[in-house]
Amino acid sequence: MKLNTLTLKESLDGLHKGDFSLDEIYRDLDQAYTEHNTKLNVYLSKNEHALEQSRAKSTLPLKGLPIAVKDNFCTRDLPSTASSAVLEGFRPQYESTVTKRLQEQGGIVYGKTNLDAFAHGSSTETSDFGPTLNPRNPEHLPGGSSGGSAAAIAGDLAIASIGSETAGSIRQPSAWCGTVGFKPSYGRASRFGVAAMASSTDSPGPITKTVEDACILLNTFAGHDPLDGTSYSEKSPDFTQFLDQSIKGMKIGLIYQDIEELATNNALLQKELEILRELGATIEVAQAMDPHPAIGVYTVVQRAEVSSNLARYDGIRYGQDRSHFGAEAKRRIMLGTFTLTAGHADKYYETAQKVRTLYLEDYKRLFANYDVLISLTSPSYAKKVGVSADAAMFGELEDMLLEASSVSGLPGINVPFFRDPDTNLYLGASLIAPMWQEGNIIKVADAFEKNSKWNSWRNRN
Amino acid sequence: MSYELVCGLEIHAELKTKSKMFCGCKNDPFGAPAPNTHTCPVCLGMPGGLPVANRQAIEWTIKLGLALNCQINLFSKFDRKNYFYPDLPKGYQISQFDLPFCYDGYIDTSEGRVRIHRIHLEEDTAKLSHQEIDLDGDGKLDKATLIDFNRSSVPLVEVVTEADIKSANQAKEYGQKLRQIMRYLEIADCDMEKGGMRLEANISLRPVGQSTLPNYKVECKNINSFKFLEAAIGYEMERQAVLLDQNQIPDQETRGYNPTTGKTFAQRSKEDAADYRYFPDPDLPPLRFTQEQIEAIRATLPELPDQKASRLAKTYDLNQKSAIEISASLKKARFYEPLLELAQKNELNPQKLVNALLNKKIDFTLQDEPAQVLQMFKEMQSTDVVDDKELSTIITQVLANNQDAVEKYKAGKTAVLGFLLGQIMKTLGKKVDVEQVRQELIKTLN
């Protein structure tokens, strides 16, 4: 077996037992990189010193293992472009808190992965450096914006990876690529050093091969950061403690079951979730607030924040002026500027904030009755390359099922629950829990993964 | 027609916290060894840089508000003020829009109360300097603008008054009092020359007797001394009166002040005014305070200049003018207070002591020890012993030599007494109690 296909847990165990060496892992990974990266365009840049750096880390928790990192994380001396031509050539002299902690725990930044430019999108097609292709089926997209990180996992081009989500950017590409994507509660992982998209919802998180891997990786970087004023002050739990737990008696609400265009995939989801009932959980259909207005809320709030967050790329620093912004960034800056303009702010920005409060209240109501809410992650399978080109609102429609939970800051996870044998493409289930209750979704996602046949690493041929 | 001034001030002052407003960089823009040394990804506005609010700066702003009799918002937040300028690395300034920390306060001046509309906290911008340097190495100088980010994100309070100011002199007095209070609180140095304190005046006129606000407003910006503030207001009053007399409404605009010509000049018309697209900064959680927290800050308020002056006047039986003068700065007050206390213990007259010091009768510095200064005062006052006989002889002698003066005195011109007293003292050549000599002189004359 090629060692690049190992899960994080398997790699750690094997290194511990001496079944193989770090060099062998890097050798297999480098080979896979050479074979596939040019075509798939997963990595924008590769850390040429990865193996060398890994040697000093063998006694640390992550033992020097190679981790793929989304290119909107600032990494010292390594290119950090957020897939935008505006930042081409930018090598920060500082490190994001997430990657700093990752490295302190023995992780190695193997390379920087592609994304929609400035994370604006759900396809990676808006990257100024070309789209990433879905390793499960290269005629299709990996989703986005963390498409590169999800593809790195699906294509075994990394042992584990880091993504970031504003509204679906970890979970949706994970659904399309058949990987696990874990967006922790907003504030659980520091945003320091991550090129900001929409500050009020940006959340770093792991994209991995298994739920267990996601917990191991999240453990290395979650927790309070004095450099991020919005980071959560309480200590993070050991997320692996929620693995292999009984889900007996847990109450699960199935939401978004009455949306007509989702009927086929919802039927598949309900069928697959039967396994949870067998494991002792109760499952019932629950009525959540219509997700459609969330698109408006998210669009208005996010565009407003984007227009302000991108103002720093004013052409004075970084070498490239504002003409280097892609079409999507320009669209978002225009829309955000408009919604914040005097006379419109009441109508758009403030209304959006009010609707956001309605979603928060709706989740409060639902979580009074349920430990976990489950729905489809994405309405569909991975779409074909080229589909987002003329669809300005492509991402918002794609992420519709996740936006309400994103604007509410809730933790969520994607687990694969079905694979279409004809296309080799996956469907993913989205599990969400109340703020800071990541344990709930870990328990259920782990139980589902281990008791169903859809995780491609747990069910290798 | 005769007009009256309608004027409000907006005054910015840099707080002297240890670190900057939103990052851990040293807050020392004037003491930095070189440009761009006190910088980091946050105050340079680099990707992923996040602001974290400086608690000390917030507490100091509230403390200033309490000192200026303000109400305090128990729920407050920071907002982004969006505009482009090379000195603003993020493309927005973190400021406060609708919920400033403090509102509705006042400062009393000799010409009446000036109400304070609001006090908010924001971050300073970087500093631009326009220079000519050879950028391309062709031996010719090129125009260049250099940016120093040492000042970027230094905490800056803005104190905004209502349009209560009725004269240029009152504007100056208000500004001086505000500066004095900030220095008393030890939260700002207010060095105007370096830009540690910046003045802006909104100036308009209305016919005397009218009570509604004028329908225009001229903003005078970037004034860096109280003298210039007074002069700029004075100039504007004349300029605007001429226009109003010609039935013209002065343009709503921003003007600068040129100290060389003593005139203001148009800088920017209000039509170009930016829409700042304020919205709450999502990087900074809103702030909530309890009444107890506010009271705890209030408890740290020192005695303020006016209070100190009244207390000193009362305790040591000083006249108002001296009391105000010795309370003018913390440095002065810290010198005079222990000194007066010691003087009182030694049963010395505090007013005489203060007079002697203020009139520079004693050679001293504000660093001198109270006991040392008091010793000098005592020496100055100390009297040599003179016996009655010696005194009587000298008086008789001086009177004999100054018959003219004696005549004048007898004719009712008592002012010559001082002259005669001087002559006697000179002849005595000793430090004697003047009062004793005076009594003796009057006795002899009569």
Molecular structure report:
The complex is a heterodimer of chains A (461) and B (446). Chain A has 461 residues and is an alpha/beta fold. Chain A has one domain (3-451): Amidase signature (AS) enzymes. Chain A is 36% helix and 13% strand. Chain A is built from 15 helices and eleven strands. Chain A has helices at 8-17, 22-40, 50-54, 97-104, 147-154, 171-177, 211-221, 263-272, 274-278, 292-309, 327-340, 346-367, 394-398, 400-407, 438-451; strands spanning 43-46, 66-70, 108-113, 160-165, 180-183, 203-208, 251-254, 282-285, 372-376, 412-420, 425-432. Chain A is globular, with a radius of gyration of 20 Å. The model of chain A has no long low-confidence stretch (mean pLDDT 95). Chain B has three domains: 3-297, no CATH class; 303-371; 388-445, Arc Repressor Mutant, subunit A (Orthogonal Bundle), CATH 1.10.10.410. Chain B has 13 helices and 16 strands. Chain B has helices at residues 55-67, 168-184, 226-245, 291-298, 305-316, 320-326, 330-345, 350-358, 370-381, 388-401, 403-410, 416-428, 434-445, and strands at residues 3-14, 71-72, 75-76, 79-82, 92-95, 102-109, 112-123, 127-133, 142-148, 155-161, 197-207, 218-223, 253-258, 263-269, 279-280, 287-288. Chain B starts with a strand and ends with a helix. Classes of the chains: A alpha/beta (461), B alpha+beta (446). The A-B interface holds A 72-74, 80, 82, 87, 90, 92, 94, 96, 191-196, 198-200, 226-230, 304-305, 307-308, 310-312, 314, 316-317, 337, 340-342, 345, 349 and B 40-41, 45-53, 80, 82, 84, 86, 89-92, 275, 277-279, 281-285.
